[in-house]
Sequence to fold (243 residues):
Amino acid sequence: MKLKYIEPLLTKYRNDHQELYYDGKISIEDKRLDLAFREKEREIDLEERRTDKQILKSKAVEDEAKSFAKRQDAEEKALQFESSRRVELEKIVKLDEVIERHRSLDDFEAILNKEKERLVNEKNKYDLSVANADWYSVDKLVSKGDRVLIDFVGEIDGIPFDGGSTEGHLLVIGSNTMIPGFEDGFIGKKAGDETVIDLKFPDDYGAEDLKGKKVQFKVKIHKVESLMISINKLKLNSDISNF
Fold:
């Protein structure tokens, strides 16, 4: 009889206990889900903040790049302006120089004409003197403008070559009628001297077989002469000039 009344109570107790158990589990699960949801919300919020920061950072970089480009463009324009300004200033300076030269051009031309006239007169006097001058034998060392009477033999590798030897040749030192260096070999020498002049034919020498070849000239100086004008001729020239 007692079991009849106790068993329903036990069953109800068990059911209530299970309900409490399941309610507790559900509550715990709900809390877990709530925590997970909140964690997800926090992650999403952090991600959104991170994205916002990246957007702001990208925008800042873009703004800085634009600002740099503007500054660079402004600097280039400033340099171009400065360069064009410098060119214009140089033109002005050159123009001033041209104007200044033009101002003194008349005076310079007058001075130049006067100098030309003086040189022409000097040349005429010199030509007149030379035309009336004579060569006189002198006892002196050879210098430029003197004339020497010489014999010479030209040799290549110790063998005389055609056209390279002569006797009794009159040569005016400084006339440049021989190959380069030949006349210089007589400077400082005197009558009676014998000398050897080592030279090289120019690469563009007229004779094909002598171009660029080394040559040795054995020379004997017989006489040294200088150009002089006699007193009588000098007096005659003076009378002609005065006339």
In short: The radius of gyration is 58 Å.
